[in-house]
Design goal:
Layout (H helix, E strand, L loop, with lengths): L24 H14 L12 H8 L3 H14 L2 E4 L2 E4 L58 H14 L14 H15 L8 E4 L1 H13 L5 E6 L3 H9 L3 E8 L2 E2 L3 H6 L4 E4 L13 H14 L2 E5 L24 E6 L11 E4 L2 H14 L5 H12 L2 H27 L5 E3 L6 E5 L6 H9 L6 E2 L13 E5 L8 H15 L1
Parallel strand pairs: 4-5, 4-7, 7-8, 8-9
Antiparallel strand pairs: 1-2, 3-10, 5-6, 9-10, 11-12, 12-14, 13-14
The protein binds pyridoxal-5'-phosphate (PLP).
């Protein structure tokens, strides 16, 4: 019996001359049949014409039709049986309600529900281009010794055999873990060996790992307020209950009663250079925090993101090294000491945790970026890293001094400068009548990207008003003009 060819398949002739590519006759016919089935123009259970009849109707070869029927049958759209070919019964997705006038090709509906834990993550203001002045946290990109790094990469590529193209150790290249442990012992007083070091994709992955490995949903995490937004994001994403803890001139403030009223599982802190206020946590507070964490079964995450660049006073060692067996997970990054797109950082696990976390880490991580890791290990061991740090320390010290000078001469609004013992930024506090968010938004339109201090606070106080000025990637020659412009914008915003 010959079945008539449904009109849905004859609407337009097939375009010829496209060979075997995406526009081939076979592909066109396949798409046409599939759309007719999905669009219910061919009813479930209905029979299709024989391959010869359809080939004749469309003026194409029978082989083409047979190949398309076979493919659609393999995909489950058609059911061949002894009498011919039937359309399969499929559950069709509900159609998205198309906004008026958009026609049938409206974007497919996105499920309305995303994880509830993502809702507290604040949206960031639009970013100016990467080189915008004053952007906090960016090192002097133009000063990075690219040629030397290129040679280290080339050497790593040449000397590592084909096996280096495999995943590698999930916890990082042994050579890099060894180099990091050695460097941290000398430069930061961190007590660790290579087995405790996990190489991560920047500090951000290290923070996310701490939250995933050490907490259960609903556990409490203390975070500095104001504090690093990335840490809060990692805690939110792990479904933790975030408790903002105020920060003063001695860093994170904790009262004894907090340990009983809101006992934390995790405490996030930047003791060597509080981000963004620049406070240094006093030795008394460090010891107290460690003792209380030990007593209450909490873990401290010490984010030591930029203290390699010490500008004033005695070097302050890491909290991790202050007390043997301290319940501290030490987090670091090469985003400031090398460059951010390298995306390499590290986590130093307490000895007691290193063995226990070995197996989960080996399942969570995949290694990779092995040539960069090997090159970085040589960069550190061969002295190039230390030389670069020395040069950058001098450069940032000069830039900070020049910025202080420019602020004192050209910022014509009352202000107070916080921090500056180390790192790449200064925090300039302003009276409330100069609203920091409005000034930062106006600055963005002039190619400047200072951050509003209030944007780092979960519960902003009157004090949390000011601008965080990153001087790492802004040359000192520009400071005078830039500070004059900021001053105008601040006065205009008042
Ligand atoms: C406080 C703090 N921690 C960590 C980082 C570095 O994160 P990552 O290594 O993921 O680039 C930054 C970067 O700006 C930071 O400000």
């Amino acid at each position: 019996m010959t079945r008539s060819v449904p009109q849905a398949l004859l609407d337009a002739p097939l375009a010829r001359g496209h060979g075997r590519g995406p526009g081939s006759l076979q592909r066109q016919l396949h798409d046409r049949l599939k759309q007719a089935i999905l669009g219910a123009h061919l009813a479930p259970g209905s029979r299709l014409p024989g391959s010869r009849a359809l080939a004749d109707a469309l003026g194409i070869s029978r082989n083409t039709v047979t190949a398309v029927y076979d493919l659609l049958a393999a995909e489950g759209y058609l059911l061949p049986d002894r009498q011919g070919t039937r359309v399969a019964a499929l559950t069709r997705p509900a159609r998205a309600a198309a906004p008026r006038g958009t026609g049938p090709r409206a974007a497919p509906a996105v499920p309305a529900v995303t994880a509830r834990r993502l809702s507290p993550i604040q949206s960031e203001p639009a970013q100016a281009d990467g080189d915008a002045a004053w952007r906090p946290g960016v090192p002097a990109l133009a000063q990075f010794p690219l040629a030397e790094w290129q040679r280290a990469l080339d050497r790593a590529m040449r000397s590592a055999g084909p096996s280096t193209l495999g995943y590698g150790n999930p916890l990082g290249e042994p050579a890099l873990r060894h180099a990091i442990a050695g460097h941290l012992g000398v430069a930061r007083g961190v007590r660790c060996d290579a087995a405790q070091v996990v190489v991560t994709e920047g500090a951000m992955e290290a923070l996310a790992l701490c939250a995933r490995l050490l907490t259960n949903p609903g556990d409490t995490a203390w975070v500095e307020d104001p504090g690093y937004r990335g840490a809060r994001t990692a805690m939110h994403a792990a479904d933790l209950r975030i408790v903002p803890m105020r920060v003063d001139a001695e860093g994170l403030c904790v009262r004894d009663s907090d340990w009983t009223a809101r006992p934390p599982r995790l405490v996030y802190a930047t003791p060597s250079h509080q981000y963004p206020t620049g406070a240094v946590m006093s030795a008394a507070r460090r010891l107290e925090l460690i003792a209380n964490a030990q007593r209450h079964g909490a873990w401290i995450i010490e984010d030591d993101y930029d203290s390699e660049f010490r500008h004033a006073g005695e070097p302050i060692g890491a909290m991790q090294g202050l007390v043997a067996q301290a319940p501290v997970l030490y987090v670091g990054t090469f985003s400031k000491t090398m460059f951010p797109s390298l995306r390499l950082g590290f986590l130093v696990l307490p000895d007691a945790l290193a063995a226990r976390l070995q197996a989960p880490l080996a399942h969570l991580l995949r290694g990779g970026h092995r040539h960069e890791q090997l090159a970085l290990a040589r960069f550190i061991e061969g002295g190039a890293f230390g030389r670069h740090l020395g040069r950058m320390r001098r450069l940032y010290r000069q830039r900070q001094a020049a910025l202080r000078e420019a602020l004192s001469r050209h910022l014509r609004v009352p202000h107070a400068i916080d921090g500056g013992h180390c790192g790449l930024h200064l925090t300039v506090r302003l009276p409330r009548r100069y609203p920091d968010a409005a000034i930062a938004a106006a600055a963005l339109r002039h190619g400047m990207a200072p951050a509003a201090l209030s944007s780092f606070a979960l519960q902003p106080s009157a004090d949390d008003n000011g601008l965080v000025l990153g001087y790492g990637n802004t040359p000192a020659e520009r400071f005078e003009a830039l500070v004059k412009r900021l001053s105008q914008l601040a006065r205009a915003a008042a």
